[in-house]
Each structure stands twice: as C-alpha cells, then as structure tokens.
Amino acid sequence: MKNVLIVSGHPDLAQSIANVTILDEVKKQLPQAHIHKLDELYPNDLFNIQDEQQALLAADIIVWQFPFHWYALPAKMKKWLDDVFLHGFSHGSKAQLGGKKLILSFTTGAPAMLYHENAAMKHSIEALLVPFESLAALCNLELQEPIYTTGVSYLARENEEELKQQYTNAKNHAEKLVKLIKSLNA
Q: For the Flavodoxin-like fold domain, which residue ranges apply (predicted)?
C-alpha cells in the first residue's frame, strides 16, 4: 500500500459530524493511513513546518479533508497551506511534491441544488474548485476527481431523520474515498 497522508482541516472536529465520521470510517478501512488533524495538532496555528513537509514528502497520496468554507479551505487549513507550501518545497525550480496524487475530500453545508449558475451559489461546485486546479498545477500534483458530500448543515442536526442521513452520507463519502485511494494503489 502506498503511503497515504490525510490532512484534516476542520477548524473544530469536536463540533463535526460528517468530517469526523468520514475520518473514522477511513481509519477503520485504511489503518495504515496517516491522519493529521490540524485542529488537534496545532490548536494555536503554530505549525511544525518541518514535520508537515516531511509528512508530505513521505506521502504518495495526499488527501485534504475539510468543510468547504466560503468556497475555499477553512482558515486554519489555508494558514497551513501558506506556512507549509513554501517556494522551493512545493513549487519553484526545486519543488519536491511533483507526481504525488492530491484528493480533495470535502463537505458543504448547502445542498447540491444551490450549486448552479441559476441558484444561490451562482456556480457549480466544479467551477468553484478552479483555484485548486491551479494550485495542483503549480505544485505538479496530480489532482484527482474530488469527493464531496453536500447538505451537512448544522441546522439539519435538529431533525433526527436529517441527522441520521448525515451519518449515512458521511459513511458513503468515506466508502468512495477509500475506493479511490485503493484504486490509486493499483
């Protein structure tokens, strides 16, 4: 099995249902995967740059697991990216991440029907991911098809049926993620 690094960018996993369930399910099925929970490892956002870069260098497959905040990475994960993906490490003439596979695995609070040009978000999810395509190209990472689950709003937790559906959807998300990771190991 290739080395898998999962970087969890949820700002507070203790408040999550979907992201925690996804991580727990993936860990059950891929116990050898390394999971870096940024909120637990770095509560004050003081990242150990050398450790994070070494983990990335050791990985063949990198998964970013996060809630889609304001059409981008959550603030903690964005700071991690800013601090760790330095010129000469992730990009530039001495870049070291080239050829690694990158998987975006994320959740949204809004339902899928709102991600269309004629709906509230005014864009599809795929259109909103264009900056990630540019990031992957700059770092010579092989960006895979994203895996995402929509509609995991905090508001849905007040309804028992909707809450059960969030758990089911998160488990299905994890199954898709594990299947993709395994296919990249073939």
A: 2-170
